[in-house]
Amino acid sequence: MLTTLLLLLQITQHYLVMQPLQEAIQHGRFNALIPICRQRVVLNLEEPLALQGTMSKEQFIEEFSSRFSSLEAEKIEWSSIQAEENIAVQSLNLILKKRFSGAKVFYKLILFMSADPFHEPKEKEWKLYYLRGLKI
Question: Least buried of 32, 73, 80, 135, by fewest C-beta within 10 Å?
């Protein structure tokens, strides 16, 4: 129990991948995601982002950026975090606005991350390996 509490404290302190992703969505600078992604990222994103399959992190960022360019984030809200020893899951609720039509899209991103089990707990680097996107 104490180990889990210490792990959660460490995770929330470092925000896992929250900050880079939030800034990328707010400012459209998706290259900031490169350091927080594994070499290969598995994607399962519904419309309006519509990306499926396994991609290199560079290809993922290029495709994600391209699809996100027609959207604007009106609201970003981190809704949950669950962590085990070297696996963590975060979810992000978004209210997106389509730039041309003005239509709103309610969307949830679920980020699955892993940490290198050989690093000391204080030095864990969480990396995104799977991204799920749902239109809600």
Answer: 80
Residue type, 16: L
Contact in structure between 55 and 65 (CB atoms under 8 Å): no
pLDDT in tens, 87-97: 889 999 999 99
Dist. CA 65–CA 49, nearest whole Å: 9
State pTM to two decimals.
0.83
The CATH code of the domain that includes 85 is 3.10.450.50
Torsion, Cα of 45, 132, 26, 122 (10° steps): -150
pLDDT in tens, 14-25: 455 677 888 888
Domain extent at residue 57: 2-135
